[in-house]
Amino acid sequence: MSSLGSIDRLAAGMAAGEFTAVELAREALDRIATLDGRLNSFVTLTPERALAQAEAVDNARTRGETLGPLAGIPMALKDNLCTRGILTTCSSRALKNHVPPYDATAWCRLEAAGAVLLGKTNLDEFAMGSSTENSAFFPTGNPWDPGRVPGGSSGGSAAAVASGEVVYALGSDTGGSIRQPAALTGVVGLKPTYGRVSRYGLVAFASSLDQVGPLARTVADCARVLQVIAGHDPLDSTSLPAAVPDYVPSLTGDVRGLKIGVPTEYFGMGVDPEVASLVRAGIEVLAGLGAEVAECSLPTTAHALAAYYVLAPAEASSNLARYDGVSYGHRATGGRDLEELYTRSRQEGLGAEVKRRIMLGTYVLSRGYYDAYYLKAQRVRALVSADFEQALGRFDLLASPTSPEVAFARGERAGDLLRMYMADACTIPVNLAGLPAISVPCGFSRGLPVGLQLIGRQLAEATLLRAAHAYEAATPQWRRVPPLAAGQERGWET
């Protein structure tokens, strides 16, 4: 029997009769029992459901039925993706007992492909944060050093993948929440083009920025998961009707002639010199494989962070107005009237960072400030998009650091909000423009992972995956196993 490895390796092992889907699920659950006491990757575990799904896969295989592309593979969902009959808390007291009556489209498609759901992963409350310290329940540790953060807001998903608790997981990315934790935990994280993957059933933070995507240990695994979850969904009005290509054949390892731009602005913004050096070395690897690399400029990058922290809180203010203690979620007791019920329910149910962003968003949308802040931020967003459009008219891809720094110590930035927000400085512009981007491991600084970000044109995920896969195949970084998982790595792609 094999321990957790790549999707291809595990699928081949099950097909050859080396182990069953039930045995694989049990091994994954045992791994979680061993490791998660130090990580806190999971908010909710679903062992009974996982074993039942695995048994269904084994029975279908015995009957000779055609199996889905992810049949029997253990995985996890970020706990802001709705799951019918399973808690969906968004790591918030406001939803601590919330069980949705429907499934997110992304999960429906994974389940139809045979996925085995082990549980729901921890996140910054309502996906607002860059460290997973804003969870109402507990912080998540980084498998490379549990005293450090795994990034956020999809920190639980990233930690679960990096430690081998699951083969892959879904996260959501509003300003970097897939790519930044992928970089800090040494895994691959893909943010698709806005509209490529349905947002139906994703609990909204900022609707014009949110996007669902995969985290995995390899680029090929990300490609296989994206293949399943991508595509038009009539339940999501922002879902793109574009055809979905077959991503796996694009993983040729050939990047000859691919034009890659290196935006100079992304190597400022507080980027640690050692991180910058490792990222530039990664870009040189792509050049050595035949890609054409040249410097370029995205002049409005310096204004993207400020625009984001106007636009995202404004949308959050609107989206989170529904958590008022009336229809569902936390309801305060003892309120004298409806207004007091609203006030007390929101005060008790929402955490400090969520309240901060709601108040900021309400302020910038208020009379007298809308034009000065919100409308101006929308204009900056248009300029950021125009910069990308111009650069990607010259280049096939852009390359940059994913995160300015490696994982920081838990609690280190609790009193320094600006520095905390700067953790997403390299990822936020991509969300403002609605572009696809991927983070791949590109080395280690002080024993902690560093991520290389590749940014593509709209709907050009195949090109992103091709370049990322070629880089991965030429480098050893992704093969390293976190110290926490030492002795647990049997069967990994090492």
Walk me through the structure.
By secondary structure, the protein is of the alpha/beta class. The chain contains 15 helices and 11 strands. The chain has one domain: Amidase signature (AS) domain (Amidase signature (AS) enzymes). The protein is 38% helix and 13% strand. An 11-stranded mixed β-sheet has the order 1-3-2-4-6-5-10-11-9-7-8, sandwiched between helices. α2 packs antiparallel against α3 and α9 crosses α12.
Can you give me a brief rundown of this structure?
The protein is of the alpha/beta class.
Average the pLDDT over all residues and give the rounded result: 95
Just give the CATH class. Alpha Beta
Shape, per Cα inertia axes: globular
Q: Rounded to an integer, what's the Rg over CA atoms?
A: 21 Å
Which CATH architecture is right? Alpha-Beta Complex
Order of helices and strands: HHEHEHEHEHEEHEHEHHHHEHHEEH
Strand adjacency order, main sheet: 1-3-2-4-6-5-10-11-9-7-8
The fourth-level CATH homologous superfamily is Amidase signature (AS) domain
Please estimate the helix content: 25-40%
- State the assembly state of the protein chains: single chain
Tell me the number of strands: 11
Number of domains: 1
Structural class: alpha/beta
Helical stretch count?
15
Q: For the terminal residues, how far apart are their CA atoms? A: 16 Å
Pick out its properties.
single chain, 494 residues, alpha/beta, Amidase signature (AS) enzymes, 15 helices, disordered C terminus
How is this fold's topology laid out?
Elements: H1 7-15, H2 21-39, E1 42-45, H3 47-62, E2 74-78, H4 105-112, E3 116-121, H5 155-162, E4 168-172, H6 179-185, E5 188-191, E6 212-216, H7 219-229, E7 259-263, H8 273-288, E8 292-296, H9 301-319, H10 338-349, H11 352-365, H12 370-394, E9 397-401, H13 417-421, H14 428-433, E10 437-445, E11 448-456, H15 461-474
Parallel strand pairs: 2-3, 2-4, 7-8, 7-9
Antiparallel strand pairs: 1-3, 4-6, 5-6, 5-10, 9-11, 10-11
